[in-house]
Amino acid sequence: MKNISILGSTGSIGVSTLKVVDAFSGEFRVIGLSAHSNIDLLIKQCIKYKPKIVTIVDETHYQTLKNALPHEIEVCAGTGGLNEVAAHPDNDLTIAAIVGSAGLYPTIEAIECGIDIGLANKEILVMAGSIITKLAKKNNVSLLPVDSEHNALFQCLNGEDKKSVRRLMLTASGGPFLNLPAEDFNKITVAQALEHPKWSMGKKISIDSATMMNKGLEVIEAHWLFSVPVDDISVIVHPESIIHSMVEFVDGSYLAQMNVPDMVFPIQHVLFHPERRQSPLFREIDFCSVGSLNFQKPDINKFPCLELAYEAVRIGHTMPAVLNAANEETVMLFLNDAIKFVDIPCIISGVMDQHKILLNPNIEELKQADVWARQAVNEHYTKMV
Ligand code: NAD
Ligand code: MG
Fold this sequence. Notes:
It is an enzyme of class 1 (oxidoreductase). By secondary structure, the chain is of the alpha/beta class.
């Protein structure tokens, strides 16, 4: 039996993780759960999985949560509670499925306690990849990629010598606006941007997929997970989302990983790693009805966020943290209908231009860069209105 905790259990990845747990009865014990504010779902999950510990970040819900649960469950609140869940001594694996930089400290806490991480929360590697990967190495912790592309690469790279890798090729669905002409980008609404053609996901990553910032963040994530230089990581649009990524080897061979586009597959791979298990969730790819697999170059003019991410990681130091925070903040403004879709890359680029880079930042300095970038976004916004 493997003991797991889930940071962000009420989100899209959290719920899919519990779906895998349900499919393999008796294989997993849920030790801890956490949510930001979705109290109703969190209570339901606690009653079903009877974790040892649970936390709600929004403290106004603490009493409701406490009253709804049996005494045996330890109930925490606030960000401190996240650390308790992440680093519970019974955990074998903590699934980092919070969205955004809010997942940084609890994930560090788990790593420092030697607990393996199932990593969905890509923003924390974008923000602090150098520190997180060093810390994981020092504590002998595995960072197991949940993100479908990285899980695909992880599978393709299994047992391969790093020297034989020529290039990592991340596939991208292209999002909802792949075929929208550039002149219509000005009219994109929030509802249209949330309508992803292939994946059902949380709001922030859905917008990131629509701008293709998601793929940019994933380039940075792959750079840190697999220690491959960014210039050896490319992005290719593959609208069918059957191939989840590929590795190009020096001898001219390519390995690609495929499955039906559903996050339960990479999650199951991580939960059982290093074993491969027969799955009750198995779904066949009907290749004949898929018919053909298509590929194209990403259009940088329509999706400048992808290029901004490359630029940020090439500069390094505090810049990726600034990119990430500016993106989180502009996406929030867009979701609140305060700015247009096309304003997202313009504001992020403006904030990156203004940023005074700090070399070799520690975690606190990265956090300060994050706070600075959020303020800078809001200053840009104030000037716009
Ligand atoms: P989501 O919005 O559906 O869920 C986020 C979860 O985090 C929720 O449980 C929420 O309560 C919690 N949360 C939000 N803000 C928080 C905060 N400030 N403090 C503590 N908890 C907070 O998001 P998601 O789609 O599940 O994505 C989670 C992460 O996984 C993201 O980093 C995303 O990029 C990554 N990811 C998601 C998918 C997917 O298919 N959804 C695929 C690959 C990677
Ligand atoms: Mg992905």
